[in-house]
Design goal:
The protein is an alpha/beta fold. It is 27% helix and 25% strand. Helix 1 crosses helix 2 and helix 4 packs across helix 5. The longest helix has 18 residues. The chain binds S-adenosylmethionine.
Length: 274
């Protein structure tokens, strides 16, 4: 990183679920510790860390609780456990449909938190909660700072990626919506800050950082995903497009493959597996 330190880390590692390469929980957690140590070294003294993680309901909910316990020994303050709701879930008729994605928020020192980023586009409609302020009875809509509700730690307003969306990147089974990464970046960094992401995949953090005028360093162990991330950024810079709605990142090299033949999300992979 040439001596630069980051203000924000957004990591979305493989979750140790069957859809990814399944390792023993202990091995997975030891591996997480390694990238957390690298993350801490790469972060400024006042900075934020967000980690997306899953829980395997068919296998003791691993690795989620194991990860939380391990984090107690790291040098980060736990701040919030956010749940993002997926529109489509997976599951059987004999269990609750799995529609959640967990997002952990930790901090180091006293980082920025821009509260404006937390407001959604959902109008505030709840009336009837009164409070006396300076002798005057005020209704809660009058008292509020915004006409829309705060996202809080349950995010219900984010459309998960599917192939018809403009930002879809065919072949990226675990792509996160730009909207959720945008929310994190706006809340926990300022323009010009450096953001890091050790698990680029479709390059969502890279792209959202570009749009929000942050700088981003990102990597992926798989050269295909590293290449996809580069192409996605280059395509955005050239055309303003966010993804490949009706095509795919390798259409120049392999024009015969149809976008519809490529699995697009981890949910479609999981539907096959469970
Ligand atoms: C869940 S996906 C990340 C999705 C990403 N947030 C997005 O929106 O596209 C995890 C990625 O981590 C990569 N990965 C797995 N092990 C890695 C490692 N040791 N170092 C770097 N990347 C790794 C995988 O190749 C995969 O692309």
């Amino acid at each position: 990183m040439g001596g630069e330190v980051a203000r924000l880390a957004i990591h979305d590692p493989p979750y140790n679920l069957a859809a990814f390469e399944l390792r023993s929980v202990g091995t997975f957690i030891d591996w997480c510790k390694k990238w957390l140590i690298s993350t801490e070294a790469a972060l400024a003294s006042d900075s934020s860390l967000y980690v997306w993680l899953g829980a395997d309901q068919n296998n003791g909910f691993q690795p989620f609780p194991d990860f939380l316990l391990m984090m107690r020994d790291q040098h980060f303050q736990p701040r919030s456990l956010i749940t993002m709701r997926n529109q489509r879930g997976y599951g059987t008729q004999k269990n609750w449909m799995a529609v959640r994605q967990e997002l952990l928020y930790y901090t180091k020192g006293k980082p920025v938190f821009n509260i404006d980023a937390e407001y959604t586009d959902i109008p505030k409609i709840l009336r009837g909660y009164y409070k006396e302020i300076n002798g005057r009875r005020m209704e809660n809509l009058e008292r509020s700072h915004s006409d829309t509700i705060r996202a809080g730690n349950v995010w219900v307003d984010i459309q998960q990626i599917f192939y018809r969306m403009e930002e879809n990147v065919s072949g990226c089974y675990a792509q996160k919506p730009i909207k959720c990464i945008d929310r994190i970046i706006r809340a926990s960094s300022n323009p010009g800050d450096l953001v890091i992401d050790f698990f680029a995949h479709s390059g969502t953090t890279l792209l959202a950082s570009e749009i929000l005028k942050r700088k981003c360093f990102t990597v992926d162990i798989d050269p295909i995903y590293a290449e996809i991330s580069i192409r996605r950024l280059e395509r955005f810079r050239a055309t303003g497009r966010l993804g490949w709605q009706n095509g795919h990142p390798f259409e120049e090299e392999v024009p015969d493959i149809k976008a519809s033949a490529i699995p697009t999300s981890v949910d479609s992979a999981q539907e096959v597996l469970f």
